[in-house]
Amino acid sequence: MRQPLRFPWSSLDVDDRSAPVIAVRVDVTGTKGEVPDHSHRKGQLVFALGGGVTCRVPSGLWMVPPHCAVWIPGGMQHSNLATENARLFFVYIEPDIVDLPGRCCTLSISPLLRELIVELCDQVGDDLARVDLLASVLLRELPRMPVQQLHLPLSSEPRLKRIAAALAKDPSDRRTLAEWSKRVALSESSLARLVVRETGLSFGRWRQQLHLIVALRELTAGASVQQVSADLGYESVAAFITMFKKALGKPPAKYLNSIVRDA
Hints:
The protein has 9 helices and 12 strands. By secondary structure, the protein is of the alpha+beta class.
């Protein structure tokens, strides 16, 4: 079950405010929280201090594990789905005042930047000079944050949308490329070329990336490695850990711990 994410101020319209940076704290209690499809003029940084968030844009899914953030450029349609008991911060930034890409990306967040974001959320007084100073340091530091490869490319091509929807609904689906080609009425070679052309990845690598996104989402929500391995249809926990380590350089527990420790 999902509930709408609740902002501290129900009347907040970030595009009506001229401040270069607006930071908002959003806590998710109990069940999963969601912000449905929307867009705004300002760019948005979605930062998770605890739990995780999956951001969906027309071109893909972006995972936000703890102590990471997703950058969403202004004007881009997107939705956010948070895990249970997530601790989130939404930072809205005026267009063209920060040197960040014109596309989505997942960023590691340094301890300094984390504290700046938290402090900006807590600024409710009249010390505007201090707010401006904190915001200027944040804008200076953001472009220095390293990019994490936690992205699943998506396509608007109808046959790939059908496959993506089925795999998102049941990530343990192990149908082969040949089986999928019959299901969408394409030859196996044609489907293989279509996947590469639309996503930049082979079918196997694309499905593996989906597994990584799902695994990180569930692990940050508190699921065990054994549970996630079974949910994704791996024959053994060892096989799942091997896949995860090969893709991200570390086994699940060490990877998540390293994000928190290095942040």
